[in-house]
């Protein structure tokens, strides 16, 4: 049997459809169909499931971490992880004295799972037969409220097709959870929660209160369950039962053949870190008690999603890719929404959809925030404030390593300290390997780049004065103290670091980790030093004087930044840029001989070291061409005294593309952006691969551990910044399109300096429309000429002219 309207759903670019139940794909679907609202995310585990080899229920509050000490590799090590919170989903039933319903224990006659992107609803339709031959149709719907971020809803609707009898219903809150999502963390302690209290507040309402065992954050979860038969509320006796951190209620009703039974569960999640509450325990109780019914809650939730889509939807053709792009947008907004702005959180690399990388914050703001800045500047600002609040921690980290300024950590969580683990466990050799990726100090140039991007798009001079300038100054100060002067070549060098390529953590047989003069790092440091000097000139004189005094900044230090920005060393060999000093002298490696993805792990298992070989894990030098325009890169290199024309740039990108394994989800993405202005055909080919990174399946087993948020957002970055060619310079919008011929239509809306603008690309024209309500005109620059787009005015340009 199949459901009759599957074909319609398949054609709808707002729906993601999975047909058939596949236990092996369940973990992948749980992450990809997870629902969230910027405050918390719940994985799409079946409400009848517990954690096992097939299912992994998970609920994560944004930025809620806890530290544990584990004994690994003969040492006590401490790690900080996002915490898997109590499961609010458990809801199941049984007919007469049969088994409690489990998707894995019945004969499935038909099954489909639909993620409705427009409304933020997950639906499962199941027709099944139990061991007694009783046939039932089950529809499950759930949502994490985008209107009321502490609430979520779950509804089961059962139709008794060929049976009558007693239906027992069981609803529970399950605190028997730990962090078990990641196999390579199996040697670490995983129990983060301890019980505070459990309550039956009144019939139909349960509450479970737990606390993290180190950070001492209280977590209160309450739930209300109601039953309806043929749309009529059923009042029945609920019998509670509790076993330690698990509490349930059970009731029983009579069902006749053909009856439709609806079981509606509304849950509320609060923590002691939430703003504007006196007690998370009282808040969760009140929220559930005052919550309207499932249908009304769902309506408010749908309206909230409508408002988000009005601001940020993108349309483009070919339409085959539109659905996937909306899925990417959907997960960005579930991870970082207007509800996130009041929380002290950063941009997690895997969303809040699983436990990979322990929920840590890396450099993914580089890919995520540029899209949000144009549509939700207050959210983007809050992500930058996450960095500013940890500026003192970054200063401490710099001092510990003998540097000045602020050394931001490669992996960050609650405190802003370095969270990169000391060791990584290899699933191939089962050996512990030192983890030197904390040497990726280039994270700070991403912070600087995002601060600058935020200011140029929003014109938020208050942020620049109060937080942005201080961030840039301390980052510039760090790089100036790390750079060393080489008298022999009259150049400044940056030694003992890592670039984005995580294969190369050291030179072959070296006693200390780190490589020298990574081209991406060195050039972006020059960019950062230049922008910092520019920011100082933008500040009001009074604020500039304050910062000079507060930070003990003087003109001699600024002059040093200028000198470094004129004399930075860049490695160039054979008419192309080199990844880092000595990279081109490494041994060649036929990496395609390895079937496994982790080439470094395979070599380590054989007693070899990836540091010996001339092969990269992911895009490195190409990241320059992803972040900066070709003219910007040329200007920076010319400033340093290096000539690099477009041919040399293309040669650089092509060379390293062929010498890269592309293990990272970001690698093809970065190359798609890098090739956009140099080889548009190749760029589009890579874009079509990247856009299906998570939706294409989970052959590597990684998506079940969390989505790849940076790669998802990066596809939007390419559409907006590389293909449309959107840039901001001195308050003006520059459009320099480079559309692949397959991209026949593109429409998006954005906000610049409080002005709303719609941009649409058709077959041969680019149309720009300024909103009637705009407070001022918008300056558009094309072909080197500027024009003002007044409020309510539209202009069209032949693409050949741009």
User: What is the CATH level 1 assignment of the domain at 6-309?
Assistant: Mainly Beta
Q: Helix fraction? A: 25-40%
- CATH homologous superfamily heading of the domain at 6-309: Glycoside hydrolase, family 65, N-terminal domain
CATH architecture of the domain at 6-309: Distorted Sandwich
End-to-end span in angstroms?
54 Å
What is the CATH topology assignment of the domain at 6-309? Answer: Beta-galactosidase, Chain A, domain 5
Average of the residue pLDDT scores? 95
Strand content: 25-35%
Largest sheet composition: 10 strands, antiparallel
Secondary-structure-based class equals alpha+beta
List the helices and strands and how they pair.
Blueprint: H1 6-11, E1 15-19, H2 26-32, E2 35-36, E3 40-42, E4 59-61, E5 65-72, E6 75-82, E7 91-95, E8 107-116, E9 121-129, E10 135-144, E11 151-160, E12 165-174, E13 193-202, E14 205-212, E15 218-229, E16 232-234, E17 239-243, E18 246-255, E19 260-271, H3 280-290, H4 294-312, E20 315-317, H5 322-335, H6 365-373, H7 377-389, H8 391-400, E21 423-425, E22 432-434, H9 443-458, H10 461-482, E23 484-486, E24 491-493, H11 519-538, H12 541-550, H13 555-567, E25 572-573, E26 576-577, H14 599-605, H15 622-627, H16 630-639, H17 646-658, H18 667-675, H19 680-690, H20 709-723, E27 726-729, E28 732-735, E29 745-752, E30 755-761, E31 765-770, E32 778-782, E33 785-789, E34 794-798
Parallel strand pairs: 28-32
Antiparallel strand pairs: 1-8, 2-3, 3-4, 5-6, 7-12, 8-9, 9-10, 10-11, 11-19, 12-18, 13-14, 14-15, 15-16, 15-19, 17-18, 20-29, 21-22, 23-24, 25-26, 27-28, 29-30, 30-31, 31-34, 32-33
Helix pairs in contact: 5-20, 6-7, 6-9, 6-20, 7-9, 7-10, 9-10, 9-11, 10-11, 11-13, 18-19, 18-20
């Amino acid at each position: 049997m199949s459901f009759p309207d599957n074909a319609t759903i398949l054609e709808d670019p707002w729906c993601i459809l999975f047909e058939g139940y596949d236990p092996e794909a369940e973990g992948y679907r749980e992450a990809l169909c997870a629902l969230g609202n910027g405050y918390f995310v719940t994985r799409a585990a079946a409400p009848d499931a517990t954690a096992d080899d097939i299912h992994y229920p998970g609920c994560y509050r944004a930025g809620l971490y806890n530290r544990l000490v584990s004994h690994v590799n003969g040492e006590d090590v401490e790690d900080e992880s996002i915490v898997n919170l109590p499961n609010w989903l458990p809801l199941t039933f049984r007919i007469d004295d049969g088994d409690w319903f489990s998707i894995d224990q019945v004969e499935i006659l038909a099954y489909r799972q639909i993620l409705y992107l427009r409304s933020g609803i997950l639906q499962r339709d199941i027709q099944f037969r139990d061991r007694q031959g009783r046939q039932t149709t089950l529809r499950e719907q759930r949502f994490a409220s985008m209107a009321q971020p502490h609430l979520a809803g779950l509804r089961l609707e059962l139709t008794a097709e060929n049976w009558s009898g007693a239906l027992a219903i069981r609803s529970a809150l399950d605190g028997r959870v730990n962090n078990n999502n990641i196999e390579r963390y199996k040697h670490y302690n995983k129990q983060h929660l301890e019980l505070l209290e459990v309550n039956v507040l009144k019939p139909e309402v349960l509450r479970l209160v737990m606390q993290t065992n180190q950070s001492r954050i209280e977590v209160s979860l309450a739930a209300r369950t109601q039953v309806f038969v043929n749309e009529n509320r059923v009042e029945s006796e609920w019998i509670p039962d509790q076993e330690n951190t698990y509490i349930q209620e059970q009731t029983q009703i009579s069902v006749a053949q053909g009856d439709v039974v609806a079981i509606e569960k509304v849950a509320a999640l609060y923590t002691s870190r939430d703003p504007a509450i006196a007690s998370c325990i009282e808040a969760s109780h009140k929220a559930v008690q005052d919550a309207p019914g499932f249908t009304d809650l769902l309506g408010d939730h749908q309206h909230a999603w409508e408002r988000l889509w009005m601001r940020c939807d993108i349309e483009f053709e070919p339409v085959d890719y539109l659905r996937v792009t909306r899925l990417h947008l959907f997960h960005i907004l579930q991870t970082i929404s207007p509800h996130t702005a009041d929380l002290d959180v950063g941009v997690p690399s895997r969303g809040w959809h699983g436990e990979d990388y322990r929920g840590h914050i890396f450099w993914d703001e580089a890919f995520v925030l540029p899209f949000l800045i144009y549509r939700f500047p207050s959210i983007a600002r809050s992500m930058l404030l996450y960095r500013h609040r940890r500026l003192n921690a970054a200063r401490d980290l710099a001092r510990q390593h003998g540097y000045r300024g602020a050394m931001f950590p490669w992996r960050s969580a609650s405190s802003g300290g370095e969270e990169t683990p000391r060791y990584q466990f290899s699933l191939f050799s089962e050996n512990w390997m030192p983890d030197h990726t904390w040497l990726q100090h280039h994270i700070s140039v991403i912070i600087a780049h995002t601060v600058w991007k935020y200011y140029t798009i929003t014109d938020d001079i208050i942020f620049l004065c109060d937080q942005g300038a201080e961030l840039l100054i301390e980052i510039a100060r760090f790089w100036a103290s790390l750079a060393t002067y080489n008298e022999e070549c009259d150049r400044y060098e940056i030694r003992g670091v890592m670039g984005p390529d995580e294969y190369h953590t050291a030179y072959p047989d070296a006693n200390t980790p780190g490589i020298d003069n990574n081209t991406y790092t060195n050039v972006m440091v020059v960019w950062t030093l230049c922008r910092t000097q520019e920011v100082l000139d933008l500040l009001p004189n009074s604020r500039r004087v304050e910062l000079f005094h507060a930070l003990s900044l003087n003109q001699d230090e600024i002059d040093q930044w200028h000198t470094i920005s004129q004399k930075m060393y860049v490695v160039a060999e054979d008419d192309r840029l080199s990844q880092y000093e000595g990279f081109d002298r490494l041994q060649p490696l036929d990496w395609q001989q390895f079937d496994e993805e982790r080439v470094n792990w395979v070599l380590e298992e054989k007693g070899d070291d990836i540091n010996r070989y001339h092969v990269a894990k992911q895009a490195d030098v190409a990241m320059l061409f992803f972040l900066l325009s070709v003219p910007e890169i040329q200007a920076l290199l010319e400033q340093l005294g290096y000539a690099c024309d477009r041919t040399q740039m293309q040669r650089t990108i092509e060379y390293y593309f062929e010498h890269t394994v592309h293990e990272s989800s970001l690698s093809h993405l970065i190359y798609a952006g890098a090739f956009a202005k140099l080889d548009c055909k190749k760029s589009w080919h890579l874009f079509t691969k990247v856009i299906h990174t998570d939706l294409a399946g989970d052959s590597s087993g990684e998506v079940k551990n969390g989505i790849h948020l940076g790669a998802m957002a990066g596809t939007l970055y390419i559409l907006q910044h590389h293909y449309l060619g959107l840039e901001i310079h001195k308050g003006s919008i520059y459009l320099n399109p480079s559309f692949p011929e397959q991209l026949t239509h593109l429409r998006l809306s954005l906000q610049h300096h409080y002005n709303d603008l719609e941009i649409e690309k058709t077959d041969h024209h680019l149309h720009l429309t300024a909103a009637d309500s705009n407070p001022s005109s918008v300056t558009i620059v094309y072909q080197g000429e500027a024009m003002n787009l007044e409020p309510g005015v539209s202009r069209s340009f032949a693409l050949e002219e741009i």
